[in-house]
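Quick board copy: two proteins, each given as sequence then tokens.
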Amino acid sequence: MNKRVPRFAALCGLLLSFAAALLPAHAAEITDLRGRKVTVPDQVRKISIDDGRYLVALSLVQADPVKPLAAWPRDIHRIGDATYAQFVEKFPALRNLPQVASSAGTFSLEAVLSAAPDVAVVSLGGGPTDAQVQQLQAAGIPVVFIDFFNQPFENQERSLRILGQLTGGSAKAESFIEFRRQHLEKISQRVAKLPASARPTVFLEAHAGLTGDCCNSVGPGNVGDYIEFVGGHNIGADVLKVPAGKLNLEYVMSRDPKIYIATGGVHLEKAGGLVLGAGYDVARARAALQKISKRQGIAQLSAVKNGNTFGLAHQLVNSPIDIVVIEAFANWVHPELFKDVDPAKTLDEINKRFLAVPYVGTGWISLK
């Protein structure tokens, strides 16, 4: 018998054991929002994100939402200066995190490779090309697409679950998902009983006062779905075929909507537009809403004449805590039907039970 054979087998065994030790002990499979089955490490240490608003989502599932981050886009305007200051005060490490490209810009492969996350979390509808995805995965960085903004009703729960799974926050993710679902069902059950004729027309002007012309608005999907969900009829969806676009002022006036909702935030301060949200009190927000409602054409709308004019912080629109927006819309579109629905109470509960960084400031306002 050749004595070298057992020795060779033993050596092979040692080599295989050494190779196995270099590989992740376990792996998990995630189906992302593009329907891709992605293998990720079972123990993810760091992720990168391409949208600062994902900080809010991470704040729902992590006591320290900055700890799991290898990099972020530093797109402070998307969450607002005041909210950013809150995060930095509580989690100073955010200030020094490496920067990757925002989903609103051109994807940078080099920035993600340099940050070396265990998983790159990117936005559906933006982010890397298919070729860049393959390059990242070849470099050992799995890519996972999520979405809180394009189709919030379809994708928000799945996206929060993915963030929870990647960061060890699955239990907290499920808790918030159930909380949100209960609040949504309360609204949907009542709206289901409404006849089609009971749906008032709604005009939503996004980034109101950003420029001198009118009107940025919403079509199907995105916040337009919120209007339909609460029993309103979004006039933008009658002509726009995409989630966001522009309406002619003449068209808006011809439809003479019953309800006018404007969105704004700190990003409109210099333009003299609608300002509200974190860093603004009720008086300042209402004064800004009064100003934009006096513009030619807008002032002539029945919604403005009858006091059915409302303002909403844009940072809340495309947000994982959008349930407070939906409840505010319900109040505005069907005040009698939803007089027992209190978005302020809901936000207070979210702040106390879920958010590591509470939302503060005037999130919504009425002209009345």
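And the next:
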Amino acid sequence: MVLQALVWCIAAVVLVSCGPAPGAQAPAITITDAWARPAMMSGDGHGMGMNSAVYFVVRNSGGQADRLIGASTAVAGRAELHETREEGGVMRMVPVPAVEIPAGGEVAFRPGGLHIMLMDLKRDLKVGDSFELTLRFERAGELKLSVPVRQGGM
């Protein structure tokens, strides 16, 4: 009888310790409307270093904010978080270290704003193609998605 009571106590401790901490809630991150531009040659005139950009909407239905802190893909040498900004009357694509995704909110990565810049592409990205992209979040960890390549505008 004592042994049975001990087993039940251990089982209760294991069940309680395996659950989430009181008040803790993991962010529920979802990605929709993902797409990438076809590959474009860099403006250096040498025909080297093809680039593209990826756009999508990040939704956080969780109770805690999260941050998008990076991206990677096998089709590019580098994938960076960028934002298009006006500086001195000129539009520039500027790297950003992270993007805050508010609790219960969403952030749109769109032409003329936030985007993932793909640099040093390893292959052409043609309309109709798709590739895998991994997004890294501070709380939610890695999220893999398939990104179709299509024409798009502002």
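Board note added afterward: The first helix runs from residue 2 to 18.
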